[in-house]
Request: fold
Amino acid sequence: MVKNDHLTSSEVDNFFGSISFGKKSADNTMTVNNFGKGKAYYLGALGLKLSYQGGTLPLSLLKQNGIMPLVSISCSTGASESENGTFRSGEITYYGIIDTNKQEKSGKTLNLNSKLYVYEVRSGQALGLTDRIPLKPNGIQLFASLPRPPQINLALPQKVSRGTSIPLMVKVNIKGKYPLHVTVKKPDGVEVAPLTRNIMAPAIHQIPFALNDKPGIWKVIVKDVITGKKITKEIEVK
Reply:
């Protein structure tokens, strides 16, 4: 009897084919069953060992079915002890890399499927139009790729009365949720912590001002989280 929280015994048979669960032969071999237009794989005990065949088993199964990874890591010294993950939002793709080999000093490259504008997010370094990204050994890196260099357009009223708010309108020439960091500074240059926000463009972000705020020229600073570039706008608080 097969116990499964989601599938009945007959559904499991239809999905994976006829499997003798619990037997040594079934636990240590992989069973492949045609299912609709695709295939179902029963890994048995192999499912608990994703490092089987040097960690290439899940990847090889995907490649056999024409599903290619967005990125790959090549290493001049052989197998790469690195983990990577990708996340996509519209035209923005993020690549997170964790390198766990403390012995290697260099030689690893992150390979993309096509040439894109790449940025190292943590440092804001622009790597230009490329499909090959050199990786640093033994550490964590976060990259973002874009189809074109980002252009951020801001619209903000030049004057505001105390006790009211003003809209900060932000647009970017990149499709997707584009990350920005907004800070507001008083006339003396002190940052107003309660007005600090992370926003996703395109957006209309309201900036409130208190009745007892100091009048004068305030600054609104918008930082591009991906490139590290900043845009500053001045407003007169009356």
Q: What stands out?
A: Confidence is low (pLDDT under 50) at residues 20-27. The chain is about 10% helix and 45% strand. The helical segments are 9-16, 24-27, 57-64.
